[in-house]
Amino acid sequence: MNFEIVHEDRYSAGRLGLLSTAHGEIETPVFMPVGTAGAVKGITPQQLKEIGSVLILANTYHLLLRPGVDVVDQLGGLHRFMAWDGPILTDSGGFQIFSLSPLTRIDDDGVEFASHVDGTKIYLDAETAMRIQNRLGADIITCLDQCTAYPCKDSELKKAVERTIRWAKRAREAHLHNEQSLFAIVQGGVNPELRTYCAEELVKLGFDGYAIGGLSVGEGHDNMIKTVCHTAQKLPKDRPRYLMGVGMPGDIIAAVKAGIDMFDCVLPTRNGRNAYAFTENGPVRLRNSALINEAGPIEAACDCYCCRNFSRGTIRHFFNVGEMLGPMLVSLHNLRFFQRLMATIRQKLKHNEFAEWAKTVDY
Amino acid sequence: MNFEIVHEDRYSAGRLGLLSTAHGEIETPVFMPVGTAGAVKGITPQQLKEIGSVLILANTYHLLLRPGVDVVDQLGGLHRFMAWDGPILTDSGGFQIFSLSPLTRIDDDGVEFASHVDGTKIYLDAETAMRIQNRLGADIITCLDQCTAYPCKDSELKKAVERTIRWAKRAREAHLHNEQSLFAIVQGGVNPELRTYCAEELVKLGFDGYAIGGLSVGEGHDNMIKTVCHTAQKLPKDRPRYLMGVGMPGDIIAAVKAGIDMFDCVLPTRNGRNAYAFTENGPVRLRNSALINEAGPIEAACDCYCCRNFSRGTIRHFFNVGEMLGPMLVSLHNLRFFQRLMATIRQKLKHNEFAEWAKTVDY
Q1: Quick check: is B264 catalytic?
Q2: Which residues from chain B sit within 8 angstroms of residue A41, using beta carbons?
Q3: Residue B264 burial by Cβ neighbours in a 10 Å radius (0-12, 13-18, 19+)
């Protein structure tokens, strides 16, 4: 992997970058649709590509549980499995292990948890997590981390940070496939000292990129952005910075300003399935009976297939009668909305208009 | 509407036709995907077009209940509403009224029924059914008919046939929009005398086309085909013949042999949602755990997006974890399978190879 800074914004820490992988180049700042268990819910890979998605994320935890790494391997690896020939990033599984699964044991070596699907006990340590992601074969992989809840006592946070650093060191040593880039994950909750410590230790080890994890877990926008600003400054300029699981358009804009290059979030598809459409004029809720005879699209300025072809009235009807096309179309629109947002952000950065523009954005 | 017989098969009653409508030409025999309440379940209109669909069906009954004719009208009519710029056929509602709804009253003038959604009482007579379909604005519309269950006493069948004829006469008089073609529906169960009587009376009235209704309701393949063969012979050669709600590939092939030009059926999408894929080698059931690591497509000979990109193993996984993409992809494959079947049928008819080929088909 190669990461090149193409342009630095004159009025913020934001930057334009170009990330090269074996499966293609990625302009940053970039938003990754989330293909949880090998599929972005309700969207075909062809549609994903048509709306401008370049890099997508798949969840190691979900793939590990079902269908399992052996099966993905037998089916030709993650790219073939998902029918996605562009770049893919796999997360570490840390977030899901610590939020979805009953933990059965955690120590400095690793973590044992019970599958949320069938209770099967699974043990993961730094090396196992690497081997799994090596075999899945994503272009960018991540070190196993310990993700903490919010709020969290400093003593607990500290332990999690120490483990995250220890596991990152071991992951780095166990990482075999040089065609895969390895990102470490900075933990530390909203504690600036711990964030600094974690970032500095990870940077000493040296990774292809750095993720900021453990945010968007209930700390709120202001705490999140304060932590992102603080942490981003501790990370090397010449490496991509990835804010995990974020977020709302306002979060993304504020984080780009702080120098973040990569984002992933389930909001476009999860909200889409729940009839919530993102627009520049704020959300449109497509179950609202006031839309019953609205002949206009969700968003007049949007160029997505949904907005070019379907009225708000029709989509409201689809949700009202339970037609799958409702969730499919609003998810598609939302993903396109996020890709258009990122394209605008890149355009504004390029012309040093980002900071001014960001002030005017209110969605 | 104009219907032209392009070729008559030398060895069967099958024929190739060209049906012209304001929204495009249709090569027959044709299969119509069913867009129940304005959407073919899980498939975008763009995908429908890509897999070779030309004419689609929408259910008057479902649209009448939700969102209602006024709303479809306010949203620009059925083509705009469904985002389908090709030809559309609306059925009469008869089948759904007599199969889904608790009837509250039926007499020679019309039928009152309770909506299966919320119990609202709705009254339909021949004229109302026309006015509704005139306002929806499909290219081909159908007269209100009384559809009988199977089995059904001859005295009941006779009454239903008389009403169907009376209502067709009134529909013809009430039909205002000359750009819409009007089809009458032949009823009569599996009683050949009643089928003859119904067909002859309707033909005397004169319609743009003739549908055969009241089949595929439990009478079985042999009774169905016997009735279709018998009835098709009583219908004018120079008008399209439409077998409603049929069916399995074997039913379609046998009916083409009897001179049927048009078909609709929910099987490709309904079975698709239930992990049942049609192939030339028989059905593939995609929940089957034997497929867990099968790297090949559902059907190697298929050119659909699903088969060109996804393995059986991945699709099995999607059904296993409840990913929407499973139902979406198998529905898409099945619809393409039906369109490929119709293309093969037309090709075989063209070269007078249809009857020979039909003998070899075993799916």
Answers
A1: yes
A2: 323-325
A3: buried
| C-beta atoms of B38 and A317 within 8 A | yes
Would you call B311 and A81 a contact, using CB atoms and an 8 Å cutoff?
A: yes
Q: Which residues of B touch A46 (CB under 8 A)?
A: 305, 309
**Distances from the Cα of A23 to the Cα of A139, A362, B137, angstroms:** 7, 35, 48
Q: Does the pLDDT at position A363 exceed 90?
A: no
Mean pLDDT within B217-241:
97
Q: State whether residue B243 is helix, strand or coil.
A: strand
Q: Which of B115, B307, B310, B316 to mutate to test the interface with A (most CBs of A within 10 A)?
A: B310
- Output the DSSP codes for B108-158: SSEEEEE-TTT--EEEEEHHHHHHHHHHHT-SEEE----PPPSS--HHHHH
* Interface with A, mutate which of B84, B274, B298, B323 (most A CBs under 10 A): B323
* Interface contact flag, B325 A44, Cβ < 8 Å: yes
Q: How confident is the model at residue B303 (pLDDT cuts 50, 70, 90)?
A: very high
Show the tokens assigned to B265. 């059926």
Query: A288-342 pLDDT, tens per residue?
Result: 999 999 999 999 999 999 999 999 999 999 999 999 999 999 999 999 999 999 9
B251 confidence band (pLDDT: 50, 70, 90): very high
Whether A238 is a known active-site residue: answer no
| Distance (Å, whole) CA B84 – CA B38 | 9
Q: Which of B91, B125, B139, B145 is catalytic?
A: B91
Asked if B71's CB is within 8 angstroms of A39's CB, the reply is no
Closest-CA distance of chain B to residue A315, Å: 9
Would the CB atoms of B320 and A67 count as touching at under 8 Å? yes
Using the Cα atoms of residue A327, residue A329, residue A332 and residue A337 in order, give the sign of their dihedral.
Answer: negative
Quick one: pLDDT at residue A326? 98
Place B184 in a pLDDT band, splitting at 50, 70 and 90. Answer: very high
Q: CA of B65: which chain A residue's CA is closest? A: A321
Give the per-residue pLDDT at A100.
87
Are A42 and B324 a contacting pair at CB < 8 A? Answer: yes
A323 closest CB neighbour out of B41, B295, B320? B41
> pLDDT tier at B116 (50, 70, 90 boundaries)?
very high
Q: How far apart are CA B116 and CA B58, in angstroms?
A: 18
Nearest residue on chain A to B77, alpha-carbon basis: A295
Q: ipTM of the assembly?
A: 0.97
How many residues comprise chain B? 363
Q: Is A39 within 8 Å of B324 when comparing Cβ atoms? A: yes
When the pLDDT of each residue in chain B is averaged and rounded to a whole number, the result is 97
Query: Residues A295, A299, A303, CA angle at the centre, nearest 5°?
Result: 105
Number of inter-chain CB pairs under 8 A, A vs B = 120
Residue B227 has pLDDT above 80, yes or no: yes
Looking up tokens 């390029």 gives A350
d(CA A74, CA B311): 11
Instruction: List the beta bridge partners of residue A103.
Output: A113
d(CA B80, CA B83): 5
User: Which residue from A76, A311, A320 is facing B295, i.e. has the nearest CB?
Assistant: A76
pLDDT attached to residue A102? 84
CB nearest to B293's CB, from A39, A75, A305: A75
Backbone angles phi, psi at B141, to 5 degrees: -125, 170
Show the DSSP H helices in A31-125 as ranges.
45-50, 60-65, 69-74, 77-82, 94-100
Would the pLDDT of B275 be above 90? yes
Predicted pLDDT of residue A220: 96
Residues A157-214 have pLDDT tens digits of 999 999 999 999 999 999 987 799 999 999 999 999 999 999 999 999 999 999 999 9
CB B125 within 8 A of CB B159: no
How close does chain B come to A43, measured CA to CA in Å? 7
